[in-house]
Amino acid sequence: MTKIDNIAKNTSYLTLALICQKIISFTYFTLLARYVGPANLGKYYFAISFTTIFSIFIDLGFANLITREVAKDRERAASWLGNILTLKIPLAFLALTAVLILVNVLHYDSLTRTLVYISCISMVLDSFTTTFFSTVRGFHNLKFESISSVIYQLVVLVVGYGALLMGKGLTWALAALALASVYNFSFALTVVLRKIKIHLRLLFDKALIKQILQISWPFAAFAVLQQLYTYLDSVFLGTFAGDVQVGIYQIAFKIIFALQFLPMAFTASLYPALSAYWHSNREQLLISFERAVNYLIIISLPIIVGCIVLADKIILLFKAGYGGAKLPLEISIISLFFIFLNFPVGSLLNACDRQRRNTWNMAIVTILSVAMNLILIPLFKAVGASITVLATNFLMFILGIYWVKRIIPYRVRKNFWILTKVLASSLVMGLIIWFGKIYLNVFVVTILGAVIYFVALFLFGGFKRADILSVYNSFKKRAPEADAEINLKAV
Description:
Helix content is 85%, strand content 0%. By secondary structure, the protein is mainly α. Helix 10 (282-309) packs antiparallel against helix 13 and helix 12 (326-332) runs parallel beside helix 15 (382-407).
């Protein structure tokens, strides 16, 4: 199997796993929200967010580092892994100690403390699981990780939902997550030992550890900032506005988080192509980026309009008590447009050796996020957090595009014309859904809206017959050399 074939195979595994994982995860979230109510849902996700923030201090960018270095030289995999594990064990102890001290110093109630204690199990085990699977990625193998991620979510769903049906309550629901982490850790360790056949032992090579720390700091800085940006709002909400507001906010957060598999899967294929074009074909780099932006505009805008129009129906999925989530959802979902576009923007910067600029951009956005949340959450609660999400993702996009235009001669008008056609088609779809939801089942009207959107987009010239044929042909067996081009010519 050629390297290109292997990349395509791994991308397929990852894409399918992401889709299954998000579907199962969102299903469990919906069931959990219906059973426990906003306040307990808030406690559940506060505990996860609280420990997730501290988990970044266990890894410190080691995951990206070990994948890259093992891919360069597989013979040194055991050495890299052994030394990184030596670093991570004391870091895990320090992070765990910090969580336990802080959750008691801040005087949270007994249930919240218990949930944080349980979540600590996942915090530690998941960090080591990531290291093991990152090592396996260095061997160009995503099969086992993809399979395990789906089984992990199934364990959470089956055990967690079973606990809820038996009336075991919130503690057992979160214990399902810890149990899934135990499984995932055991599976990842088994893959390293038996499939990759690495002799696992703790090592302390001073020269290599020094090299690890020197190389990993940019990855660590970005990871720390990204986790703070993603989870600190939930912690602030729990601290300043209460558990109910965390639960309400999680409705919008989970929907947006679930939908991110679309750009994630696409950029998994896009990034290698951009990296290659940066070194060999700058003209194709520009074309590929503009087409990628078009593709994500076509996907994101109808989702945004549909969610805004159907926000009242979506909230009903989670039963009574979540009515306050409607406005946060309508505000937050607009940020999906910038979240989607930030994927190709970030990929271009990384592919063109501007990864430090990405880190600086994330630092600026995180500082603004903290400041806005501290001001807006006490005033507007979950709505304030949603406004912050929208503003900061918009800023991240502006900062990224500024540097994109310094790397390539990016032509805004190329994407603007598509944007106007997609927006017009989305508004037509929105009107149909708005009136149709009064008379039709929400699922029927959603399908009808999707059909109308693509018909309208075709009539407005948003895509042509040649584009449809290109997508069709991309599923046919083709020469490996054509694979990188196929993914970008559909739009």
